[in-house]
Specification:
Helix content: 25-40%
Shape: globular
Number of helices: 10
Structural class: alpha/beta
Radius of gyration: 20 Å
Length: 341
């Protein structure tokens, strides 16, 4: 079967990570790259080796001169409205890096843009596609611990250790944790629990030692359909031992618990016995899974798992958390979330 032709826009920082993974995906062919900095393009072409991929300092030139089926937009959120519209105008499907926008209002606008074209727009949520998450989800769906009733989730990272240039645009954002990192965890909650958010109460804050500006820590209490209660704490101004980027979590049911600790998933019995979960074999993981799953979905005429309209629900949790922190009120999400954020 003919491979889907791909143009990647944004190859600096995380964009290079994308290239290093997706270049081996058999269902696609990278046909062009674009970035506003020549140094990023030079490094990306070295990474791609003998593939001899055309490189452009303008995404408009790339879209005009190279025929492609899919645009990967690995650029800062404020750029994505224009880039998504330009890619759709050029006749391409689109995958945007998370979060889909800077604010919930912008996310709604991006969804409206996507609906205006006969193409598929999806959002990368690569944390879903780790074998460890597949193992946890499979265990939940099998009824291993019964109905999931309580979730405890903790995320701790020291953001000052990640000072690459790709992070500079995040500096001094008002809510860098909730908008840039918590979106991963909120989306994972939905995915693992196979449930939708009902309500959320949150409080974000800035520690005295946080040098990067903005509220880099937050607590939240979430309720999901089916009655699952989630207690969430996250910080990107941690001191001491960091968690993985996924964080550590416990999902508790009547028959025991599932734990994800330091990157390893466990089944914990009612008697307290702890057994690592068996990990599935996957051809692709992470962003390469995102891309291949998208291609397979489009070919089959179905929506990808993280199509933009569905991922808006995950992003609405971010918007609700920001609003709740500002107002001190519980925000309902089961009646539609269309507020100012």
């Amino acid at each position: 079967m003919e491979r889907m032709k791909v143009i990647q826009v944004g190859v600096g920082g995380f964009g290079k990570y994308w290239l290093s993974n997706i270049k081996s995906v058999q269902s696609i062919e990278i046909v062009a790259i674009a970035d506003v900095q020549q140094s990023n393009l030079d490094e990306a072409q070295k990474l791609l080796g003998d593939l001899h991929i055309p490189a452009y300092l303008s995404h408009e030139d790339a879209f005009r001169e190279v025929k492609a089926d899919l645009a990967l937009l690995i650029t800062p959120p404020p750029t994505r409205h224009r880039l998504t519209r330009d890619a759709l105008e050029a006749g391409m499907h689109v995958i945007v890096e998370k979060p889909m926008a800077s604010t919930y209002r912008e996310a709604l606008q991006l969804v409206d843009i996507a609906r205006s074209y006969d193409k598929v727009v999806s959002v990368n949520q690569n944390y879903r596609w780790a074998p460890e998450m597949t193992a946890v989800k499979t265990a939940l769906e099998s009824g291993l611990i019964g109905k999931a009733e309580v979730v405890e989730w903790q995320f701790d990272r020291d953001g000052s250790r990640n000072r690459g240039p790709q992070s500079e645009w995040r500096r001094n954002r008002e809510e860098p944790l909730l908008t840039e990192l918590s979106i991963h965890h909120f989306d994972l909650m939905r995915y693992l629990l196979s449930a939708q958010p009902v309500s959320l109460f949150a409080k974000s804050f800035c520690t005295s030692w946080n040098e990067r500006g903005g509220n880099a820590s937050a607590s939240a209490i979430l309720q999901f359909s089916g009655g699952t209660h989630v207690n969430y704490f996250a910080s990107s101004s941690n001191k001491g031992k960091d968690t993985t980027w996924t964080g550590n979590f416990r999902i508790v049911g009547r028959l025991g618990a599932l734990e994800f600790t330091d990157g390893v998933p466990y089944h914990v019995t009612e008697d307290g016995e702890r057994h690592p979960l068996e990990l599935p074999s996957q051809q692709y993981t992470n962003v390469d899974y995102t891309v291949d799953e998208f291609v397979q979905a489009v070919r089959a005429g179905r929506n990808p798992a993280t199509v933009i309209a569905d991922n808006l629900i995950s992003f609405s949790m971010v918007g609700a958390a920001v609003e709740s922190s500002k107002t001190g009120q519980v925000v309902r999400l089961d009646t539609g979330f269309y507020h100012a954020y």
